[in-house]
Backbone:
């Protein structure tokens, strides 16, 4: 019996990917082993702890069989097959060691090493190099090959021969990527990078050029380097490279790490698990953790490389205060800042009433931190004025899925995509916004699943290497409900419904009312074509494919929610899945792609003003009682203010004080001028953040925040997966964010004494049924848990609504299309829609402070050639973008990705302030702002607008900090 | 702006929000649309927002959809101490 290996802690490379077949038993070196059918001999050997030497194989990639280092002998078979490409057979008898295979392996290594510089001692991979390990493993002692006397150099690693002539085979290092370097002289052409780029990432940026001795790894087309190629800097090739050829620059600079901590990425809602690899308290690199269940060993450029903001000199490490926002900041100690803040907030409540202050929780902070911030409002301010930036992204998901299914969450885990046959992506751009999920999706599409994209813009997925959308419905912005309802019309009228599913799982009367509603000819694709811009035949074909193409899965994003009918579209999407029975098994479902890392968690934790943790309305006395007992206070039974209501109330003088943790509402919320007016009207704005963000221009108290590297806690990703965040270095400003909130609460008279976030989780579990079974111990044991985790699901719930909907019967909702009030006209004839790109993250506060700016140093406006031409705009020109709310300037990018009549931009840079343009229209149910539709005009311009200039002057003035007093 | 001054103006945004809500529920089946509008507002609006829309409906009401006006009697306006 070999050693028992705890699976989630196992970081060994098993050589080839895991398989799921029926069990096959064989004998390796006299030991019996049983593995799933399809497993390689190499992996079977690894299962019993035998590492067969290998170079071109790694368990994240399909076996390739090129190096021949992994040869073995199999009884009854001639020759020495490669163990990585040989599948197991019942009764097979394998010998991994014999004189014969030893000799072959030594010969292979000798050949490799003869064309390799013997630089190990000064090499960045020293100690972390598979070539080095294999030379050791096969017992390589000497290399007999030598360059022929006086002949040309027959190697790739010497720039010049001894007489100084250039070696034509030698290639210089490519340092164009800011995060990793490519040194061709150390390349063994194992092809792992090329395959990683294809199989794992799906970008196909790398190829092998040439043949035999001349073959080289090459990014892009001839003349390209890594930066100019299609490379998206995901790091998969670096991860796969067995040598120093593709190497993180941080390792080249700092050396190899000596310890590591498993933690969770703090960027997007995919929630990738990473190994933070450290030297003492210095971060050397972040590598994707292969047992992370969201990412399965993959990463994107943000999580993998863009962590430099955490140690950026712009970070503010001392608390600061000021009496009014035209004064410079004054640095003070924690105690002074907290008592200043507490006195002001209490004073405001005394003067203007209990409801005159509130909080904004962060979707970037941990669950524990968010829980404490909403608790601050409810238990210390004694009101329900708490909201979170999920308001501006996924609040309609909460409402829409709550109404139809009974709970606000995606129905599947990410693994589910592996069983999908048809994937419907609506208003989301996974390859940019949720890159690791995007890669997993593309992998499934390359295996043959079909793709439907519903988006005004031709996102990359529509057409990328080896991926073609079967249908792209380029609808006019603002017509989602009409399109989704027309899809339902086709499904109902063409008899494509799954009636037995509906009969069993949904309310039949509601279904019949709904069917009657959608069957009305006014919802037919022919009737709505003029409105939506989607050709009827295309729409019909789409509906048929989704309904009858096998397992149909819907993934949607902010292009669905950020509309005045956001909630209605979410309900329409929920209807589609119920109509077709695409619910409750792998490969199907309805999945919101969450923007920020902890959007799901911040909603779960009761950040919304109308509900306590676990989505329970504050009006319910039995729910209030639980928290009243736990907190020893009386809880206000009335819902509080949402962010936009807070700002409206502030302008009207009814709302005076705000504690805003880890959010930049001034940059991220719509109608910047209105947000600024609201903030300016407040008497105490407390900003708790890493940087002096845009909101801080209007703040009176600044409390330094801690990055995700500096604290313990949990994030919950888009799959409802609770992942651990682990402290890898001490908080730079002295306190983790949860400690600061606790100190503020105590300064206002509370008596909280948590000494570790696990105690906060215990309080959450004790009060919130869907978290009842969650503990840090269980998280450490299992790696992660998907809520609900309770008595009936002690290990969590990967898939929701399996035997029935959470609310009982699924509820069909009528989804009548209502045109938005934001309409184009002669003054504003174009529709602006917004989005984001891979390398930058939201308001960019983090990514702008990393080398990622190399890929996106400014926001640009995408405009169709036709619209550009009639306005006399050329590519790269400065243009003025104006709406009813305001105007700004930015550069034009002429592209047919957008349809005529539609323009598009990102919102990552404060100089652009795309939100000066957006209006204050919002979703009817949740007030989620309508970012995705704004009527605009575009005209040539020669510089920044007056607003931009006034804004930067105010920002500069407001950011002054007095030198610390002696 | 002081709250009193603010009260003098018609609550433009609240009117628009209430009308949007009414538009949705107007399309829903059953005879209880006005109650559904009131329930939604009771569940999601802060009491002071509810007080304002009710006061506006009582004083003037111009610009409010008939379904909002029908819902007003069912909108709860709690006594607020502070
Ligand atoms: S890549 Fe590996 S074998 Fe080559 S010099 Fe570096 S450490 Fe040595
Ligand atoms: S970093 Fe990613 S995208 Fe770039 S070449 Fe490597 S695998 Fe391909
Ligand atoms: S996909 Fe999202 S969670 Fe994963 S590394 Fe990238 S930003 Fe982080
Ligand atoms: S590892 Fe099997 S051939 Fe390279």
Residues:
């Amino acid at each position: 019996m070999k050693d028992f290996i705890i699976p989630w802690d196992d970081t060994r490379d098993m050589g080839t990917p895991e398989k799921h077949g029926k069990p096959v038993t064989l004998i390796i070196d006299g030991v019996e082993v049983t593995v799933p059918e399809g497993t390689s001999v190499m992996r079977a050997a690894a299962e019993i702890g035998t590492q067969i030497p290998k170079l071109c194989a790694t368990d994240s990639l399909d076996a390739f069989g090129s190096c021949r280092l992994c040869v073995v002998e199999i009884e009854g078979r001639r020759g020495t097959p490669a163990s990585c490409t040989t599948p197991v057979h019942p009764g097979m008898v394998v010998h991994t060691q014999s004189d014969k295979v030893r000799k072959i392996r030594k010969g292979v290594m000798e050949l490799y090493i003869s064309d390799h510089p013997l630089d190990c001692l000064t090499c960045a991979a020293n100690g972390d190099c598979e070539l080095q390990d294999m030379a050791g493993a096969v017992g390589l002692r000497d290399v007999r090959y030598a360059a022929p006397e006086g002949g040309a150099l027959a190697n790739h690693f010497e720039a010049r021969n001894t007489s100084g002539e250039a070696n034509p085979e030698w290639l210089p290092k490519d340092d164009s990527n800011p995060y990793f370097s490519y040194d061709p002289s150390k390349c063994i052409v194992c092809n792992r990078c090329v395959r990683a780029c294809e199989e794992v990432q799906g970008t196909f940026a790398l190829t092998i050029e040439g043949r035999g001795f001349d073959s080289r790894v090459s990014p892009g087309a001839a003349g390209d380097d890594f930066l100019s190629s299609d490379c998206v800097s995901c790091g998969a090739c670096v991860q796969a490279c067995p040598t120093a050829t593709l190497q993180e620059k941080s390792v080249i600079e700092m050396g190899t790490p000596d310890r590591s901590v498993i933690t969770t990425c703090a960027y997007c809602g995919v929630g990738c698990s990473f190994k933070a690899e450290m030297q003492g308290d210095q971060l050397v690199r972040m590598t994707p953790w292969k047992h992370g269940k969201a990412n399965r060993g993959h990463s994107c450029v943000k999580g993998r490389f863009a962590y430099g903001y955490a140690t950026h000199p712009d970070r503010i490490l001392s608390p600061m205060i000021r009496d009014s926002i035209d004064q410079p900041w004054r640095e003070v100690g924690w105690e002074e800042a907290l008592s200043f803040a507490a006195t002001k907030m209490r004073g405001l409540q005394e003067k203007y009433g209990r409801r005159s202050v509130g909080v904004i929780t962060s979707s970037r902070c941990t669950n524990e931190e968010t829980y404490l911030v909403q608790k601050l409002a409810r238990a210390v301010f004694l009101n329900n004025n708490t909201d979170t930036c999920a308001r501006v992204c996924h609040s309609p998901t909460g409402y829409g899925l709550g109404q139809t299914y009974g709970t606000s969450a995606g129905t599947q885990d990410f693994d589910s995509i592996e069983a999908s046959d048809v994937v419907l992506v609506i208003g989301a751009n996974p390859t940019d916004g949720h890159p690791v999920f995007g890669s997993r999706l593309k992998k499934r599409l390359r295996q043959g699943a079909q793709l439907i994209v519903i988006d005004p813009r031709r996102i990359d997925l529509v057409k990328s290497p080896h991926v073609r959308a079967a249908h792209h419905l380029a609808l006019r912005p603002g017509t989602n409900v009409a399109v989704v309802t027309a899809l339902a019309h086709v499904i109902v009228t063409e008899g494509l419904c799954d009636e037995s599913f509906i009969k069993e799982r949904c309310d039949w009367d509601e279904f019949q009312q709904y069917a009657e509603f959608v069957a009305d000819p006014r919802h037919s694709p022919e009737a709505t074509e003029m409105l939506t811009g989607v050709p009827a035949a295309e729409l019909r074909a789409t509906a048929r494919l989704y309904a009858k193409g096998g397992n149909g899965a819907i993934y949607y994003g902010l292009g669905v929610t950020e509309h005045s009918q956001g909630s209605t579209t979410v309900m329409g999407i929920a209807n589609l899945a119920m109509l077709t029975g695409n619910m409750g098994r792998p490969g199907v479902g309805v999945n919101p792609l969450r923007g920020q890392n902890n959007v799901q968690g911040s909603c779960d934790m009761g950040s919304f003003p109308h509900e306590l943790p676990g989505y329970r309305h504050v009006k319910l006395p039995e729910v209030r009682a639980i928290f009243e007992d736990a907190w020893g206070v009386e809880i206000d039974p009335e819902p509080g203010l949402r962010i936009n209501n807070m700002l409206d109330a502030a302008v009207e003088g009814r709302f005076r004080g705000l504690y805003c943790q880890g959010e930049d509402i001034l940059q991220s919320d719509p109608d910047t001028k209105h947000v600024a007016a609201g903030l300016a009207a407040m008497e105490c704005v407390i900003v708790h953040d890493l940087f002096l963000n845009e909101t801080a221009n209007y703040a009176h108290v600044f409390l330094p925040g801690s990055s995700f590297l500096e604290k313990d806690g949990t994030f919950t990703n888009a799959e409802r997966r609770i992942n651990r965040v682990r402290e890898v270095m001490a908080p730079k400003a002295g306190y983790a964010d949860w400690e600061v909130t606790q100190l503020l609460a105590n300064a206002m008279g509370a008596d909280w004494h948590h000494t570790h976030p696990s105690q906060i989780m215990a309080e959450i579990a004790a009060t919130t049924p869907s978290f009842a079974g969650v503990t840090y111990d269980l998280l450490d044991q299992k790696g992660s848990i998907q809520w609900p985790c309770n008595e009936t699901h002690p290990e969590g719930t990967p898939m929701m609504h399996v035997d029935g909907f959470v609310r009982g019967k699924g509820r069909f909702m009528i989804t009548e299309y209502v045109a938005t009030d934001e309409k184009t006209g002669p003054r504003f004839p174009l529709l602006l829609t917004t989005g984001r790109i891979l390398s930058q993250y939201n308001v960019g506060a983090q990514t702008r402070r990393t080398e990622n700016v190399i890929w996106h140093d400014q926001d640009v406006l995408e405009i169709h050639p036709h619209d550009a031409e009639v306005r006399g705009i050329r590519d790269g020109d400065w243009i003025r973008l104006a709406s009813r709310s305001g105007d700004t300037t930015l550069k034009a990018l002429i592209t047919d990705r957008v349809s005529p009549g539609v323009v598009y931009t990102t919102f990552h840079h404060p100089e652009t302030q795309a939100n000066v343009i957006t209006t204050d229209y919002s979703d009817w149910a949740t007030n989620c702002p309508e970012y995705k539709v704004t009527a605009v005009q575009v005209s040539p311009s020669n510089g920044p607008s007056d607003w931009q200039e006034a804004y930067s002057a105010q920002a500069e003035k407001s950011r002054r900090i007095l030198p610390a007093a002696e | 702006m002081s709250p009193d001054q603010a009260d003098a103006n018609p609550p433009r945004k609240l009117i628009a929000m209430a009308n949007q809500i009414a538009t949705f529920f107007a399309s829903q089946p059953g005879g209880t649309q006005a109650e559904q509008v009131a329930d939604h507002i009771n569940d999601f609006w802060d009491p002071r927002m509810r007080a304002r829309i009710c006061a506006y409906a009582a004083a003037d009401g111009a610009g409010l959809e008939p379904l909002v006006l029908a819902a007003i009697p069912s909108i709860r306006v709690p006594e607020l101490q502070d």
About this structure: Residues 47 and 79 of chain B are 9 Å apart (CA to CA).
